[in-house]
Amino acid sequence: MLNWSTSAVTFRMLPFFAFWIVLLPTDLAGQDLLIKRSSSPIIIDAVMDEPAWSEAEIATDFNQYFPFDTSLADSQTEVRVTYDDKNLYVIAIMQNLGHARKYVVSSLQRDFRGSAYDSFSVVLDTYKDRSNAFIFGINPYGVQREGFITNGGLQTRTQGSSTENSSFSLTWDNKWYSETRMLDSCWIVEMAIPFNSVRFKDNVDTWYVNFYRVDSEKGERSTWSHIPRNFSMVNIGFNKEVKWDQSPQNRGRNISLIPYTAFRTSKNFEDKTPTENEFTLGGDAKIALSSALNLDLTINPDFSQVEADQQVTNLDRFEIFFPERRQFFLENADLFSNFGSDGARPFFSRRIGIVTDTATGTNMTNPIYFGARMSGNLSSKWRVGLMSIQAAKDKELSLPSINYTVATLQRRLGQRSNVSAIWVNKQGFQDSIGGDFHLKPMDWNRTFGLDLNLASDDNRWNGKTYYHQSFDQGKLDSTYSAGLEVNHETFNWQIRSDVRTVGANFNPDVGFVRRSDFSQLRATAYRNFYPAKGSIQSHAPGLDMDILRHNVYGVTDWDANILYRINFKNTARFMLRLRRQYTYLIEPFDPSGTDGNELPAKTDYTYDFMIAQYQSDERNSFFYEVSTRGGKYFNGTRFNLEGILSYRFGIRGTASMNFEYNRIRLPGDYNDADLYLFGPRLDLTFTRSLFWTTLIQYNNQINNVSINTRFQWRFKPVSDLFIVYTDNYHAAEEDQFIDFSRPKARAFVIKINYWFNL
Question: 105: which of 329, 519, 544, 740 lies 20 to 30 Å off by Cα?
Fold first, then answer.
């Protein structure tokens, strides 16, 4: 039992006590497919008329994953695989239930996501580490998606009624080719995945592979290799081992150049500065140092086309996390970003090249001169990551030119576990590249970290333990962060627990740390039930608790929760949470979020409230997700209603409305508040290569209305023309939506980039 009066010194050593879990053996079905070299050229046309396809072995007998996992899929799929010197070829036939039908897709926009949309995906664990994999997917209309699976597909993050798999990312882009064809009885896809688009080791004659399909007609999800429904469908611990008749090789050089040119005109109305016009050139290069090790280079990168962050109402006492979206930082991102735990990361790439504009409250870019990033596998046991980036000086924000260098090394242990080390260095420079370029020896910050990640072969147990330490010129004590996490998952039980501590002076400048000087214990347990009949696929009551102890003031926060969640067979979801929460304020705080009178420091509050969330069936043209909370709030009350309403008009796009309303009522001289945030959004997909997105966000908490509209023409694979317009205004008073007489900032960008292989 954890003694919460234990000294911080004793507590910080907890992650170093060795823990290991007895690994239960598992049989993952062995080799089930031999991939034979193609005997004829393959034309990507979704027509299976080449002799190589009739000679290829067939992956069939797909297993149902949802709504049940005890039988073969009702809608069966057949997959054939072959290859030549340049490409891996896949052809798949997705059978229907004996009749013609319509398919449900989100739009024609690339990198679609959703568990209710028709699609077929290929998962390639090329390193055979059951930890990292590439995923290539497509829908019946030929819309592609590609991405990474990290941490074995195990890492999850709870978002209301649903559990989002944060180990599955679709933000990575690369070149590959495909065609689809829809018939009455089935739909067919044919793919060519270039070997130089993935990373793998030469002279390895087996990979771990899986295929999965989503069929909207009955809301069925199925996989080639059986995955129990209590695990994620992208859990790569269940992938089957497939054998090559000849080991694939890295043949010839593998170099890609992605130059860009952009014109930008911008105006800051708050500072009353002249309009700035800027013409820029730059680009990226991808160089394969080996078939498993990649070098990314960037010169004067421009991220103006990156999708705008979705604003939130901030009623928290601490910083809000926004995910990384920039391409340069994404390949093998787990090597850099997965150290520590949520809210205590020693490295967070958005600290590089992004600053907050105090006039609008939105994030702005700080130019980067150049950067280099090497990442990948040195062998079947070793992975490495090395990154160095030089950011530009910014006189307006009083930022010197700063170098960010990160080095990571990972050693695989057993089948699915690893130990990883990270070193982060932030170093200031005297001036920009245009002048003297000298170190500022008194302007630096460094962080060292060591993580041990453990996962059993049978997927039932996983966890981690870590220790991190920051260093700067202050030479303070208590500059550590440490933690221990253990998760257990079976068909009936899902149990997650962790304990961690962050020292008073832990300060990784290039990390993400929400708060310091505390110790925390968290635990969540769900008991799953799977009814054989009715509309419910599964339901689970649960308990959750969280205790946070400040190292000076004692227990400052705790909450206890009664949970209930329901997954319906039609893909809808429901969640209910009854919470009692305690908060001790170390510093004054205004719970209204309006810069009003603050509750005094060293006061405490215990309050009860309810949270509920419902997500409807995404297969319908109109679908929605709505959540609410209501009850006591510090010394007053709070009612919250938020969500997103969406209408999908066929394959041509979606109109949606994000909304959030908070009604806060506080007694006496404390401010009441009615906080509104609206975000109408229109996504139009004219073709598979022509897209237009417009997002308007009204936020009365920061008195801002932002408009972001982006046109994209993908004229060649991974080659684009972007036209982006961004505008920010003061929110109007009284009955108006926007005060057009009070603009804050405006920008217009035209950018073109082209990907070509040498």
Answer: 329
